[in-house]
Amino acid sequence: MNIKTPLSLLRTGALAGMMLIGLLFGRSALAVPPEAKYVGEKACVNCHQVENKHFGHTTHAKVFRQNPKNDTEKQVCEACHGPGSLHVPEKDNKNRDYLIGFTKEWGTPIEAQNGQCLNCHNGGQRLHWPGSTHDSNKIACSDCHNPMARFSASGLLKKPSITETCQTCHQQQRAEFQKRSHMPVPEGKMTCEDCHNPHGSVTRPLLKADSVNEVCYACHAEKRGPLLWEHAPVRENCVNCHHPHGSNHDKLLQAARPHLCQQCHSPSVGHPGTFYNASGTAAAALVGGTAGQRVIGRSCQNCHSQIHGSNHPAGARFQR
Predict the structure, then answer these.
(1) CA distances to 35, 108, 269 from 40, in Å
(2) Per-residue pLDDT tens digits for 257-276
(3) Looking at the chain, which terminus has fewer C-beta neighbours within 10 angstroms, N or C?
(4) What CA–CA distance (Å, rounded) separates 52 from 56?
(5) pTM of the full predicted structure?
């Protein structure tokens, strides 16, 4: 019995991966038969000339064609799509059931698509991809990336920038960035990836650190401490008081001051003894009300200026 051919085929990572995927996900279309062979890039280009024109400008094309690091990468098109001998026109059926497609219409399972990408792009930033929010929600690599064309300056993204790519799905965050006070993402001074790792993280919101505060401290180092007098909600979580993306209140605040402070500080305990509400706003003054200086000014922070914490010996009330 001749067993050389099947063993030689299994030496290629792409084909071995496709056969394993077929066993795991029960899809016969992915169980590549032994007769499937690599036909070479020229056979693909004979029909897919438009795709080849766009693909030639990408990093993948340059690496696969000029400096492949293994036998799989030498196959160029088939390095990702699998052996194409059962698909070429000479077979007269153009059967694509044994190829891996990277579109929703093709029907290849998401796990199979991502498995092909992770054959090369594993570890590093993708260390926590398995089980991450994007992985659990069946997000394919091709939902954010387009390795067949160069639409972005880096990363082979489907949109010109990281932010536009993320906002394709995250519409709520897109709206928040348009609010009066927002992170400088629309201005291009930062991107979503400055705070999040879209390929996986130890946190559910895919933060690039272990907590929200650690992410914020990367830029706002003066808030890190250690501080002699600490403000409990500040130490617990920055989003207790701030929206992380955008707000219609000053400084990304969850609510306007003094109303934000009054969510924790009851007027019946300590100072001040007046509960401020909408009757003291500038708008109320236009219709006969009395404007409150602590409502229309900086409010509690007129006196408690070091609200994030203080190192002054007399800063117990965050006044110094």
Answers:
(1) 15, 22, 78
(2) 888 988 888 766 666 556 67
(3) N
(4) 6
(5) 0.77
